[in-house]
Amino acid sequence: MSEQWQYQLRLYLADEVAEAARRDAAAPVLGPLPQILEKHDATMKCQFYAFADYVAQAEADGVEGYPLYEWTKATIEDPIKKAKHLKSFALHINGQEVYPKEEADALEADLQPLVDGTRITRLSRHDTNPASNPQMPERFRKSQA
C-alpha cells in the first residue's frame, strides 16, 4: 500500500554551508549540489523559512484555517529549534513539496555520495503516511478544539 504515500527528502547542512545556501542556492561552497538538483528539477527550501512563511500566511489570512499555526509559531520562536531548522532544507521536485517514490529514490541516489558529514551532514526521507510522522503536542491540539 506504500504506493499511495508521497515523499520528501531533506538535507542538513553545516552552519556556514547552510548560511551560504540560504543566500544563494548556487553558492560555490555547495559543490556539485546545485547541478544535481537541476538534473532532477529540484529546489531547496530552508525549513525555518518554510515555517516562517506558514506563520505569516496564517496571520494574514486568519489563523483559524491553519491548524498548525500555534505549534509552528512556537517552533520558530524557540532559539534552539530555529538554529536546527536554519540548517535543514526540504527538497522540492517540479515545484512540489512531496513527490512519488521513484522521484525521491532517483534524487536520493544522486545525493547520497555528497553526504560527507562536513558540508552535508545528513540526508533524510519523510513520507506522508500519518503513522510515520510525529503528532502535534497535546497542548497545541487542545487549543484547536
Short description:
The chain is an alpha+beta fold and 145 residues long. The chain has helices at residues 15-23, 33-39, 47-61, 69-77, 79-85, 101-111, 138-142; strands at residues 7-13, 42-46, 88-93, 120-127.
Written account of the structure:
Residues 121-145 are annotated as: Disordered. This protein is α+β, with helices and mostly antiparallel strands and 145 residues long. It has one domain (2-142). 43% of the residues lie in helices and 18% in strands. The chain is built from 7 helices and 4 strands, in the order βααβαααβαβα.
Count of runs of 4 or more consecutive helical residues? 7
Outline type: globular
Q: Which regions have little confidence, pLDDT < 50, spanning 5+ residues? A: none
The number of distinct β-strands equals: 4
CA-atom Rg in angstroms: 16 Å
SSE pattern, N- to C-terminal: EHHEHHHEHEH
What percentage of amino acids are in beta strands? 15-25%
Strand order of the largest sheet: 2-3-1-4
Number of domains: 1
- Report the end-to-end length measured between terminal Cα atoms: 32 Å
Question: What portion of residues is helical?
Answer: 40-55%
Region (Disordered): 121-145
Give the SSE layout.
Layout: E1 7-13, H1 15-23, H2 33-39, E2 42-46, H3 47-61, H4 69-77, H5 79-85, E3 88-93, H6 101-111, E4 120-127, H7 138-142
Antiparallel strand pairs: 1-3, 1-4, 2-3
Helix pairs in contact: 3-4
Region (Disordered): 121-145
